Amino acid sequence: xxxxxxxxxxxxxxxxxxxxxxxxxxxxxxxxxxxxxxxxxxxxxxxxxxxxxxxxxxxxxxxxxxxxxxxxxxxxxxxxxxxxxxxxxxxxxxxxxxxxxxxxxxxxxxxxxxxxxxxxxxxxxxxxxxxxxxxxxxxxxxxxxxxxxxxxxxxxxxxxxxxxxxxxxxxxxxxxxxxxxxxxxxxxxxxxxxxxxxxxxxxxxxxxxxxxxxxxxxxxxxxxxxxxxxxxxxxxxxxxxxxxxxxxxxxxxxxxxxxxxxxxxxxxxxxxxxxxxxxxxxxxxxxxxxxxxxxxxxxxxxxxxxxxxxxxxxxxxxxxxxxxxxxxxxxxxxxxxxxxxxxxxxxxxxxxxxxxxxxxxxxxxxxxxxxxxxxxxxxxxxxxxxxxx
Length: 389
Ligand code: PLP
Description:
Blueprint: H1 15-29, E1 36-37, H2 49-62, H3 78-89, E2 100-103, H4 106-112, E3 122-127, H5 132-139, E4 143-148, E5 167-171, H6 183-195, E6 199-203, E7 229-234, H7 236-239, E8 247-250, H8 257-269, H9 275-284, H10 287-314, E9 318-320, E10 326-330, H11 337-348, E11 350-351, E12 353-354, E13 365-369, H12 374-388
Parallel strand pairs: 1-11, 3-4, 3-5, 5-6, 6-7
Antiparallel strand pairs: 2-8, 7-8, 9-10, 10-13, 12-13
Helix pairs in contact: 2-9, 3-9, 10-12
The structure holds pyridoxal-5'-phosphate.
């Protein structure tokens, strides 16, 4: 037996464990101080009523002989694929049902998709970004190069014709920066991919937070993107499904063999998402479901605006917060990410996430999120104002 030694090349991630350790230590030494957590990367609002009712109904069906369901189609039930198809139509994107694959979330598919690509492809990943893209490729022994996201390009790197790559990751709206590509910027990536016969793996996990109509919800809103992009989306942040697990991946027929390869991969290694969950997901796409999830999204977005407005008032450079639950700020007074983390914890009892944990270019930056409560977000901003006014 030989081990996959590529795992030895993974960087150890101490980000969230170090945060937890520092916060616990502080809490133990300062039991009278109220800590506000603005580092939360998970949703906090419960599932909406339409989803709960649909899931209850589906559970009852599972207990009755006539309506019991066993294995479902690996690619998802048609009722949900049709709901996704209609959702895309709202953004003027027409998809065939065969192009839509229901998954148990974006993270698994983002990792699993690599099964259908050769090990020798060169991969381009923005820095900083959601760490899963890098780690899944390192595990497979692929070479990863980085696109520099920085203050100058407002954390939205453009393609560089002098760098030739085969697989390109784009996350828009981005985690951790909250920055989102507009149509023109995305078009440049599509042009690059078509010219270089590369594939874009487009992570749209935060599309539901987009409010600016210059920003596409789907990469397929860009001409010819179906010939060069696979899109991943999730109900995790859209509808609070982080613990319920459901997402969808689009592999267009225009990608030729890739669509059939993905069918083969999924039918071999995946047995589908639970029926009850798919019924809950279907409810998200109904008119009532959309109304209900918007209430939660708007709650988070109100928090994001409070944070963003406060930073503006204080003259602290930042991106995100408008089409995203994330706000990415430059640490005041040239502090390093972890230095700022300690400063905020000790002086204002606010917890955020040091940008350095998301890549080399994240050093000197800091992520705040809008998934906390309105009252806490407001109080945290008052504390920040006192520190930096
Ligand atoms: N993609 C991005 C950019 C994320 O930030 C996350 C979760 O935080 C995911 C994907 C994972 O989504 P899911 O819960 O659907 O696996």
